[in-house]
């Protein structure tokens, strides 16, 4: 008894602390969860709207999401599309494109494209490029990423889709050639995908019910390469 | 163990056994996050909050703690508090949370917190324990902010950039910018080590000078006692 009593007391303390800790975490979660979900939605909406400047769409982009599957999408490195519409008319598409060959791993890009395949805006969404060098792809660090605005597969010509140092039409980032090449190639690949699949993509029906939960996004299969 | 005076608690926490400069505890977040003032301040405040609360709770429970079970209790308390901090940041300071990233949940591994719970709070009344948490946390936060200021100033040529993440839009205007680009090295990981090394050196040098002058003031003869 005398040796077990303190241990028992300690166990009781442990159980009480565990129960109170769980309760406090649960209560905080209940208070915070709606705001966290809303923050995520707002962030996504804001990131999406940023690559479609001056496009007069009226649908909720966060609910107009398509998961892209199939060989063509995989090869092009695009995995998600959002369709911006006014009424039922598609105005443009946002593609999420991944550059697998950044200097420090994947660079995830968002790319807004008009119906005609002209780039409206590109932003780096996630990357681990070197601070001070490769992170110049970040809009907060430099304007480099803005040079894609207004470009398309015809402007510049296909052969010029690389940095000036390689004889192309795009500025490279000093000290981050690998990063620059990776981003340019990813944008080019995404545009090629859009050229081929864009029309079908924009006319894929999306549930128009605005009250529908956001996980109504559906998958589309664009696997058949067209002749 | 008698309860030290409030002045002693603060002198210890801020200077004599400063977590960052003397005990060299919690170096991982200290080195990783301190690339700007706002990051340092954000993580410093979060750590301070967890330290004060942990010390208070541990001190209140100290009658129930038994040696073999105390560490699990400490870890539970710290983990619950860090989870709460993380949820609050995600819900109410989403932009800052994205910048601090993994280092908020990693507060749980900051050994300063466990060390103060074990060495001080479990043997002292709540008031002293809370003050000790405040002093230790303030000492750690001060080093984080100072190192953040140093690296931001040298590395980016700015000071207080992004304070609006913590204090709302009103604070966006207090950013100071120098018309220089900054030395890249300072914001890269080596800059953290060099900066902290310099701070420790200056701190030690100051302490040594103070100790020597105290020595000569108290000893009548200038001859130093043999060590």
Largest interface chains and counts? A-B, 27 and 26 residues
Largest sheet of chain B: 2 strands, antiparallel
| Count of the domains of chain B | 1
* Strand element count of chain A: 6
The portion of residues assigned to helices of chain A is 25-40%
Query: If helices are DSSP runs of H or I spanning 4 or more residues, what is the number of helices of chain A?
Result: 3
Biggest beta sheet summary of chain A: 6 strands, mixed
Order of helices and strands of chain A: HEHEEEEHE
Walk across the major sheet of chain B and give the strand order.
Answer: 1-2
Structural class estimated from helices and strands of chain B: mainly alpha
Quote the beta fraction of chain A.
15-25%
Search tags:
heterodimer, A: 227 residues, alpha+beta, six-stranded mixed β-sheet, 3 helices, extended, B: 227 residues, two-stranded antiparallel ribbon, globular
Structural notes for this entry:
With about 230 residues, chain A is an alpha+beta fold. Chain A has one domain (about 50-220). Helix content of chain A is about 35%, strand content about 20%. Chain A is built from 3 helices and 6 strands; from the N terminus they run αβαββββαβ. Chain A has helices at about 5-50, 70-75, 175-200; strands spanning about 65-70, 80-85, 90-100, 105-115, 120-125, 220. In chain A, strands 5-4-3-2-1-6 form a 6-stranded mixed beta sheet. In chain A, strand 2 (about 80-85) and strand 3 (about 90-100) form a beta hairpin. The longest helix of chain A is centred in the first third of the chain and has 47 residues, at about 5-50. Residues about 210-215 and about 220-225 of chain A have low confidence and may be disordered. With about 230 residues, chain B is mainly alpha-helical. Chain B has one domain. Helix content of chain B is about 65%, strand content about 0%. Chain B contains 9 helices and 2 strands. Chain B has a two-stranded antiparallel sheet. In chain B, helix 3 (about 35-60) packs parallel to helix 6 (about 110-120) and helix 3 (about 35-60) runs antiparallel to helix 7. The two termini of chain B are about 30 Å apart. The chains are: A alpha+beta (about 230), B mainly alpha (about 230). The interface of A and B includes residues 36 and 43 of A.
